Amino acid sequence: MIISFAIADTGVNIVLVSVGAMTGRTAPILDTIAPAEAAARIIDPVPQALVLTAIVIGLGITALMLAYAYRLFQLRNTLDISHFRDLKW
Fold this sequence. Notes:
The chain has 3 helices and no strands. By secondary structure, the protein is an all-alpha fold. The chain starts with a helix and ends in a 13-residue tail after the last helix.
């Protein structure tokens, strides 16, 4: 489950970056571009900033899940989900 979460998280990040990419445009650095034509020549940096934030959050959640799985293995000596019936009715 932890590996599938990490793969899904990476996939969502790739989709967000690809949605924000536009061909023929440049990085959002305003050095020689006049402000009037800047909107037509630069890429929106918001998707990239969102992906950077999502990477950090995904790393934290993955680390928390791995720590929880390690602790569960220490207590029960197994990671088989069918052996955990404590909260089932």
